Each structure stands twice: as C-alpha cells, then as structure tokens.
Amino acid sequence: MVSDVLPTIVIYLNRKFNIELDEAIAVVKKSQVLKGCSDDLDDISLQEWLGKFLNELNITIDMDKEVVSQKIKDFIK
Q1: Which listed site, 11, 41, 54, 74, has its alpha carbon 20 to 30 Å from 20?
Q2: Could you please report the per-residue DSSP string of 17-64?
Q3: Reported pTM
C-alpha cells in the first residue's frame, strides 16, 4: 500500500492544486505524517492518509491554488 499512497498524493497535489511534481515530491518526502505511512498500512485508507497529510500542512481541499502553492513552498523550506 505504501507504494500506492505516496505517488497518489503527489499526483493529487499536481492535478488538484497545480503543484509542480518536484515540489509535490519534496513536500511528501518531508512530511512527518507520511513517514509513518509504512507502519500503519493495513489500518488506514488512502483518504485518511491524504486527510492527515493535508492537516499537517493546514490545507483544505477548497483552498485557492495560490495559497496552497505558497503553503507547500513554506513547508519545504
């Protein structure tokens, strides 16, 4: 499942918020929430991982793309 979760979140960020792939990969790699992804694979669904990840970044699915882009850039720094 971990092989599905991380790439799916990268693609979600790219398509939903127009985040460049290299930035999406960087933010996913830096996420503390997703580092635990491999530990709890059977217990948590993809949607739950996405929700936890977005909460970590303080992002909601209806946020403006520019705001999300800035939050991701700030998180990567």
Answers
A1: 41
A2: H---HHHHHHHHHH-HHHHTTTTSTTTS-HHHHHHHHHHHHT--TTS-
A3: 0.83
Q: Give pLDDT tens digits for 17-27.
A: 999 999 999 99
- The residue-averaged pLDDT of 11-36 equals 92
CA 48 to chain centre: 11
Taking CA atoms, 29 is separated from 6, 34, 38, 45, in Å, by 9, 8, 13, 19
Contact 73, 33 (CB under 8 A): no
Handedness of CA 8, 9, 11, 15 (dihedral sign): positive
Q: What is the chain's length?
A: 77
What is residue 42's predicted lDDT score, i.e. its pLDDT? 61
What CA–CA distances, in Å, run from 55 to 5, 52? 16, 5
